[in-house]
């Protein structure tokens, strides 16, 4: 216990001097009935409910929200603007082509504006008056898109009329700012909700993600008319944080199926197509062509990599204008269903997202997760662990996937590549939980639960919501919710799992001490969640052991050097002192 108290004091460093924290102001104009207006209403309602699912309002299906966002993106344009510009004149100029629903500015390799028109015809009108730039020493590839470059005819005449452009923030808060915000919170519940609000995707960021997908869709449609590029993963499942990658799915299934119900008579017309040996070969050929097109003709697409031999072939690139790192796939339909399932879980109870964001932040602070592939625990695995934990509460906060399947009707039925991906899609038909536990209690119980979990023999299964015997010897086994024979955490090593367990136990102990000696509001000490994000004693001890234990090659080298130093042949320096040779 004494050692633990020393560890605790080591982690309770002083907070940064408390000062007024200024939050960035975002410009977002919305028309009644638009997605932006709906999101504003949802945000206002969520502020009145801190925990649980009290005061529920009807929520849209995942597919309905996706459809609205896509339609919104299709009447939106991206414009690279001069750094000095009159916002009033800019909007007046664009309004010639039709009424503007909303707009915002942001910075990424220059100043950009995202402008949403109320009608799609306004975009066509703007495209019709836009010209291809003329180059002195280079040749421009004429590509008609919704990504424009604005120039002023007489820059000097507009200098005196420039207005201050307020740019939207697309970056998560710094560690210092986050520490200040958490130290000012009134409770641990407030800390978790504050972290969620600071890291979650903003309305503007979400709009920009759908717009980026829509711009890529325009390029792909040159080859595959009526194709759709859909965002999936963290961009749409409600668990994405500011700065996360943008995963895209090139959906070709709707091509040629639009008019199947309109055929009549004794004949059936089919397209003439080329055949390839397998679905995987088709995917590789399609992505290869799209990758070449993005590389040579896609405005703002840089660093294009075609990773076609991966388990799930993809094209990776940077969209310079939006600042997103993008992965484009075309045979990953199960990932879309996973995104929808997580969206449903995140929408069922306001505590779910707060818990997931906080656990992910805690894991990132202690290097349990990494953006580099390796033996680390992934964010997806952590999310599954939180969902599983909330299913195990009494009463459960979240239903099991099997229960969601029993609520499904005929239109919810979904079989993908032989895997049953059926679950209810209407959020309003799922009964809310009667559990009233606080976030503080849940956070502490999460660390205690997994700090003592029998990972050596049990697996995690959100489909049934109960512990099961591990079907394999991997240190950590978390069953894929749809491809049930797969372990989504097969990459995790024993050392990384043990590190997670040690940190979970330490964090549970720290939170238990909060009940006894919580710092006063006037104290400068970090507390609660802020204390959990400080450097860990577990990490410090582990690092010290690594430093003490030298690699075998280094120990052998030092031994040889010591033998040489005791040899009479060794040279002496000008002061008569013996020197040690370090040459091999």
UniProtKB/TrEMBL annotation:
Signal peptide: none
Keyword set, alphabetical order: Magnesium, Metal-binding, Transferase
Cofactor(s) the protein needs: Mg(2+); Mn(2+)
Residue stretches making up the RL domain: 62-130
Source domain of life: Eukaryota
Region (Disordered) residue spans: 40-61, 544-584
Entry's Gene Ontology BP terms: histone mRNA catabolic process; mitochondrial mRNA polyadenylation; mitochondrial RNA 3'-end processing
GO cellular component, one term: nucleoplasm
Domain PAP-associated: 440-485
Molecular-function GO term, any one: manganese ion binding
Domain Poly(A) RNA polymerase mitochondrial-like central palm: 188-346
Protein name in UniProt: Poly(A) RNA polymerase, mitochondrial
Annotated source species: Vulpes vulpes (Red fox)
């Amino acid at each position: 216990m004494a050692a633990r108290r020393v560890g605790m004091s080591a982690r309770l460093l002083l907070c940064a001097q408390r000062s007024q924290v200024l939050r960035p102001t975002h410009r977002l104009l919305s028309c009644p009935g638009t997605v932006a207006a709906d999101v504003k209403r949802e945000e206002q309602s969520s502020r009145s409910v801190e925990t649980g699912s009290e005061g529920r309002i009807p929520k849209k299906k995942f597919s309905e929200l996706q459809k609205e966002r896509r339609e919104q993106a299709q009447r939106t344009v991206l414009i690279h603007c001069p750094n000095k510009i009159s916002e009033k004149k800019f909007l007046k100029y664009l309004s010639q082509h039709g009424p503007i629903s909303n707009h915002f500015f942001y910075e990424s390799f220059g100043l950009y504006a995202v402008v949403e028109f109320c009608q799609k015809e306004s975009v066509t009108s703007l495209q019709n008056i836009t010209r291809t730039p003329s180059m002195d020493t280079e040749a421009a590839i004429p590509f008609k898109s919704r990504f424009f470059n604005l120039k002023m005819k007489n820059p000097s005449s507009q200098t005196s009329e420039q207005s201050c452009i307020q740019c939207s923030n697309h970056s998560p808060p710094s560690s210092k700012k986050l520490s200040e915000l958490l130290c000012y919170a009134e409770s641990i519940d407030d800390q978790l909700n504050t972290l969620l609000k600071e890291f979650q995707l903003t309305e503007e960021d979400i709009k920009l993600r759908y717009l980026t997908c829509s711009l890529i869709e325009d390029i792909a449609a040159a080859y595959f008319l009526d194709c759709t590029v859909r965002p999936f993963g963290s961009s749409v499942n409600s668990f994405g944080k500011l700065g996360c990658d943008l995963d895209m799915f090139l959906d070709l299934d709707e091509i040629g199926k639009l008019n199947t119900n309109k055929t009549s008579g004794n004949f059936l017309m089919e397209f003439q197509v080329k055949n390839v040996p397998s679905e995987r070969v088709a995917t590789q050929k399609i992505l290869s062509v799209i990758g070449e097109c993005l590389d040579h003709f896609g405005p703002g697409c840089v660093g294009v990599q075609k990773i076609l031999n991966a388990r799930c072939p993809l094209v990776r690139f940077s969209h310079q204008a939006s600042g997103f790192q993008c992965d484009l796939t075309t045979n990953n339909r199960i990932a879309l269903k996973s995104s929808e399932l997580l969206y449903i879980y995140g929408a069922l109870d306001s505590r779910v997202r707060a818990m997931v964001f906080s656990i992910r932040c805690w894991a990132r602070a202690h290097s349990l997760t990494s953006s580099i592939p390796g033996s680390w625990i992934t964010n997806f695995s952590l999310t599954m662990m939180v969902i599983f934990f909330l299913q195990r509460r009494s009463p459960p906060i979240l239903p099991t996937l099997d229960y969601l399947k029993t609520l499904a009707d005929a239109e919810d039925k979904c079989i993908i590549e032989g895997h049953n991906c059926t679950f209810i899609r209407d959020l309003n038909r799922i009964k809310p939980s009667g559990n009233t536990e606080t976030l503080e209690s849940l956070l502490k119980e999460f660390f205690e639960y997994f700090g003592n979990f029998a990972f050596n023999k049990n697996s995690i299964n959100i489909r049934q919501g109960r512990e099961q015997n591990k079907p394999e010897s991997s240190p950590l086994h978390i069953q894929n919710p749809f491809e049930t024979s797969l372990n989504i955490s097969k990459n995790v090593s024993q050392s990384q799992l043990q590190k997670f367990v040690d940190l979970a136990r330490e964090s549970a102990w720290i939170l238990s001490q909060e009940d006894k000696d919580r710092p006063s509001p006037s104290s400068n000490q970090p507390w609660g969640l802020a204390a959990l994000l400080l450097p860990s004693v577990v990490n410090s001890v582990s690092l010290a052991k690594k430093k003490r234990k030298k690699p075998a090659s280094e120990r052998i080298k030092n031994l040889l050097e010591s033998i040489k130093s005791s040899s009479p042949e060794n040279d002496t320096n000008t002061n008569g002192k013996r020197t040690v040779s370090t040459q091999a």
